[in-house]
Amino acid sequence: MQILRRKPLNPPNLPDTLDEGHSQAVLVQGGSRVLMSSQLGVDPQGHLAGPELAEQTEAALDNIERLLTGLGGDLSRVVMLRIYLAESARYDQHVVIEGLKRRFPNAPPAATWLIVHGLAEPEWLIALEAEAALPGYLSGD
To answer: Would you tell me how many other CB atoms lie within 10 Å of the CB of residue 54?
Structure first.
């Protein structure tokens, strides 16, 4: 069995991003890397979780969690998030921060935040792209 090490890095000579729900970096050694497509604020049937950013953020995080659970992992395995926030939700970033802090209370992943003009559908407010590290190797297809 291969050992996986995951260590959040928040050096004192950089701004404290833990208050924003993410680490400055995450050092990963060993394991398998999982690259996820952007997850949206939709339910498992593809229906919008709701019109508000909080509902869509929770649904996108749920989708990441479901994907990782299917691979034998959980949200603690996420090492990087790319957060795409629609321009119309620019001033509601605190809602996303609250969701991240709730879902990643210890050792949060590194993150990049991007404000985009819009997503593929006008009602979509957020897309979360995640990278995770899982111990061992996946077998089969």
So the answer is: 17
pLDDT of residue 52: 98
26 token code pair: 């995450």
pTM (two decimals): 0.86
| Residue 50 neighbours by CB under 8 Å, 6+ apart | 41, 56, 59
pLDDT tens digits for range 86-110: 999 999 999 999 999 999 999 899 9
Q: Quote the CA–CA distance of 39 and 72 in Å, as a whole number.
A: 19
Query: 3 phi and psi, to 5 degrees?
Result: -90, 135
